[in-house]
Specification:
11-stranded mixed sheet; 380 residues; globular; single chain; 7-stranded mixed barrel
Length: 380
């Protein structure tokens, strides 16, 4: 990615999809070129949390909400230390930030962090195209990065695909760190960082959990060196088929029957550890308004998602696995995609979505309480 951070509002820009479709607009954020996988997010709020979610690494995010940036940017809401999206696509960015918490504009933040974007295009048409054709490689070009469009298409088609991408170690912490419990410490949890969001250990800390966040390359010995009451596997980017290391660690956790909780990428890791396959969704689930049913209670939740891969597990039966019986605990009501797994003979479960949901909704926050209940039962 090459960028310039000078004023960009009048600079022409073009978005080129790998199937040859082109959208023309104006630069937003930094000027230059960038490549990634084109995906769309249906959230109408929480754009700052979206931008800083490590799960969006190497993805160009198209916002379906037409008006973006009206509340500006602050230093309190990011989910990590930087913006991770490869590029940003909006229809009508706010010209003026209007919120008492705003410290600068979204455009300024994108330019400061060198994130190439495009504004003024028909994001509805682009979203419909991605729904029909599927997520695909894309490039955004502006300023001096605008030679002839035939050359641009060739560049897009040379960019790496998301299938087969091993990305979790690129976004995870390099060194372990500890998030202390808020109030009385009740439990210790080892959290394997595959692209963890800042709100996740905070949600556990609120429940009296001291969270030891470990790199994606952590071994089972590293996990058990902190003497955990439970083990957590986080969200993260990339193809779960490449995550052999985390799968091996999870299998050791399952062998020891330590209480286990995984979200998003962690759900896919559990699926692989149990012997299920994974596959790439046509265009994925991204946003904060996805309906999911908890099949253990019958309750329907509105949930926050960011995933392009899913677990291939049977919805209609209990499966026998090397670690006992397992079943699909949650399912997406839009398309019947597996949204959660649980073991019936030991304390382990996972969900495909994001129960920490910093920007909301908070329907799924009870899952952290469910994790606490498993650890309490194991201690008792």
């Amino acid at each position: 990615m090459t960028t310039s951070t000078r004023g960009t509002a009048r600079v022409p820009a073009v978005l080129v999809l790998e199937d040859g479709r082109i959208f023309r607009g104006r630069a937003y954020g930094a000027v230059g070129e960038t490549f990634g996988e084109a995906v769309f997010s249906t959230g109408m709020t929480g754009y700052q949390e979206t931008l800083t979610d490590p799960s969006y690494h190497r993805q160009v995010v198209v916002m379906t909400a037409p008006h973006v940036g009206n509340t500006g940017v602050n230093d309190e809401d990011p989910e990590s230390a930087r913006i991770w999206v490869a590029g940003y696509v909006v229809r009508d960015p706010a010209r003026v930030s209007s919120n008492w918490r705003a410290q600068r504009s979204l455009d300024e933040e994108l330019r400061h962090q060198g994130v190439v974007g495009i504004q003024g295009i028909d994001t509805r048409a682009l979203t419909r195209h991605l729904r029909e054709r599927g997520a695909m490689r894309v490039g955004i070009f502006s300023g001096s990065a605008l030679p002839d469009e035939g050359t641009l298409l060739a560049e897009v088609r040379q960019a790496p695909e998301m299938t087969g991408a091993d990305l979790s170690a690129e976004v995870a912490t390099k060194e372990p760190y500890v998030v202390p419990a808020i109030g009385e410490k009740k439990f210790t949890v080892a959290a394997v960082d595959l692209g963890i969001k800042g709100m996740t250990p905070h949600r556990m800390a609120e429940r009296g959990i001291e969270v030891h966040v470990l790199p994606a390359t952590a071994t089972a010995e590293d996990v058990y060196a902190v003497r955990p009451d439970g083990v957590f596997f986080s969200n993260g980017p990339g193809d779960p088929a490449t995550a052999d290391g985390p799968v091996a660690v999870m299998r050791e956790v399952l062998r020891r029957k330590t209480p286990l909780f995984g979200i998003c990428f962690g759900n896919q890791i559990l699926g692989r550890a149990l012997g299920f396959g994974t596959y790439k969704l046509k265009y994925g689930h991204r946003g904060i308004n996805q309906p999911v049913q908890d099949r253990t209670t019958g309750k329907v939740e509105v949930t926050a998602h960011n995933h392009g891969f899913a677990v291939d597990a049977p919805l209609d039966k209990v499966s026998d696995t090397p670690f006992g019986r397992a079943e699909v605990s949650h399912v997406c009501l839009n398309d019947n995609v597996v949204e959660g797994l649980q073991l019936l003979d030991q304390p382990a479960f996972s969900v495909q979505y994001h129960p920490e949901a910093a920007a909301g909704p908070h329907d799924a926050a009870y899952l952290f309480d469910r994790f606490v209940t498993l650890m309490e039962a194991e201690r008792a």
